[in-house]
């Protein structure tokens, strides 16, 4: 009979002075993530969070939801065991005899030093019972099943299915950032990486409707929706870039258009960030991946920013990013066909080494810059997304 979830958190434990603040954020996020499933309240116990199971039919859903709560290192649904190891070994045996496996390991963590046996002794006694009773072999390195026994605060729990979380810091513990979300593979991953550092992410997407179809717009909203499972409430700003692009096309050499589009995006995103009291921008750039992402071009784009631009993927290769996108479930949406506003009237061989003086000269031709920026923000749509959705009760 499973009694409770035992949730371990990672890095939070290292933050001495602020530990209480981080723990509180994590607890609030857990409650929020489960708010449509269970009413049980998590509580702290000896550096862990315990969440009682009030209805076993909820266990699979809770297990799935906890996987997405950032800040959790690992967690398991555990049964309360008897402190008498002779009784405990029978309880573990009764549990493990229903599982299919060839190799196993018992791993005991004794945080409560008043317990009479040390962890090695518990491992040996319980392990021998399983080995002899079920004829399974003990393997210390990557066994099929690991039975974790935890002894803390005069309690003993055991569990055979520990799951890993994403680790990191709970969302909301490090302030707000504005993420430039295209419909591509990279920027959703970049946004997620910032969430794992405790940031609440506000999304901004630029589209070229009516010059292009609205597909990127819908894809971006869908991506933001998928990422909302990690932060529960998101805002996405959908900014029309077409009128600005028209001016850029009129005044800038074709080779520089992409750089100028990007600088406009940064200007607009920064204004949104200031309105939202966010302290930094985020992009999915990775050095050398595409023409716009040379060091020279990144420098020319960054130059216009009055706040830090965070680029969590800057040194990561595409394979890693794709793997993460698949894990997050954003990959399929990102690979759906869409009209990218940045490819709108951009030559096949854009500038790869933008010079600032040429950029400034091109921008100087755009006399009504302030009006253009103002109007783009005036025409911006904002959508709010929530998870879990409480629609319909
Ligand atoms: P992505 O896969 O995120 O689109 P990418 O490798 O295709 O990245 P670029 O298209 O050059 O690279 O974009 C670099 C970054 O600029 C993106 O990661 C994103 O942060 C931002 N960006 C590009 N286009 C848009 C857009 N239409 N709306 C919002 N942000 C954008
Ligand atoms: Mg892109």
Instruction: Provide a count of the helices.
Output: 13
CATH class of the largest domain: Alpha Beta
Could you report the average pLDDT, rounded to the nearest whole number? 94
User: What gyration radius follows from the Cα positions, in whole Å?
Assistant: 26 Å
CATH architecture designation of the largest domain: 3-Layer(aba) Sandwich
Count of discrete domains: 2
Please report the distance between the alpha carbons of the first and last residues: 30 Å
What is the strand content? 15-25%
Listed once per kind, the bound small molecules are: adenosine-5'-triphosphate, magnesium ion
- List unreliable stretches of 5+ residues: none
What name is given to the CATH topology of the largest domain?
Answer: Rossmann fold
Share of residues in helices: 25-40%
* Main sheet: strands, sense, barrel: 9 strands, mixed
CATH superfamily of the largest domain: HUPs
């Amino acid at each position: 009979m499973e009694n409770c979830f035992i949730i371990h958190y990672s890095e939070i434990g290292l933050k001495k002075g602020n530990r209480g603040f981080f723990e509180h954020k994590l607890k609030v996020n857990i409650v929020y993530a489960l708010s449509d499933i269970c009413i049980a309240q998590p509580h702290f116990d000896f550096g862990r969070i315990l969440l009682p199971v009030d209805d076993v039919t909820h266990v699979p859903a809770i297990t799935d939801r906890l996987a997405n709560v950032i800040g959790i290192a690992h967690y398991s649904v555990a049964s309360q065991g008897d402190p008498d190891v002779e009784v405990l070994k029978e309880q573990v045996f009764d549990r493990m005899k229903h599982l299919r496996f060839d190799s196993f390991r018992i791993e005991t963590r004794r945080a409560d030093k008043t317990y009479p046996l040390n962890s090695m002794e518990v491992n040996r006694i319980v392990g021998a019972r399983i080995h002899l009773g079920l004829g399974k072999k003990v393997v210390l390195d990557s066994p099929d099943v690991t039975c974790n026994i935890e002894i803390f605060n005069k309690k003993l729990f055991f569990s055979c299915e520990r799951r890993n979380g994403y680790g990191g810091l709970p969302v909301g513990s490090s302030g707000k950032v504005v993420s430039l979300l295209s419909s591509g593979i990279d920027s959703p991953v970049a946004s997620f990486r910032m969430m794992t550092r405790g940031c609440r992410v506000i999304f901004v997407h630029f589209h070229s409707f009516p010059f292009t179809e609205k597909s990127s717009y819908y894809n971006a909203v869908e991506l933001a929706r998928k990422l909302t499972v990690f932060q529960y409430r998101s805002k996405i700003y959908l900014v029309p870039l077409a009128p600005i692009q028209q001016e850029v096309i009129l005044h800038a050499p074709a080779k520089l258009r992409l750089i100028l589009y990007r600088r406009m995006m940064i200007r607009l995103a920064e204004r949104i960030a200031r309105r939202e009291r966010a302290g930094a921008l985020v992009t999915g750039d990775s050095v050398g991946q595409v023409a716009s992402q040379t060091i020279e071009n990144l420098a020319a784009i960054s130059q216009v920013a009055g706040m830090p631009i965070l680029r969590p993927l800057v040194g990561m290769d595409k394979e890693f990013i794709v793997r993460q996108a698949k894990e997050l479930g954003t990959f399929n949406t990102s690979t759906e066909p869409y009209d990218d506003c940045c490819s709108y009237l951009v030559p096949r061989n854009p500038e790869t080494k933008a010079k600032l003086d040429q950029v400034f000269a091109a921008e100087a031709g755009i006399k009504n810059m302030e009006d253009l920026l103002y109007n783009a923000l005036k025409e911006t749509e904002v959508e709010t997304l929530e998870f879990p959705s409480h629609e319909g009760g």
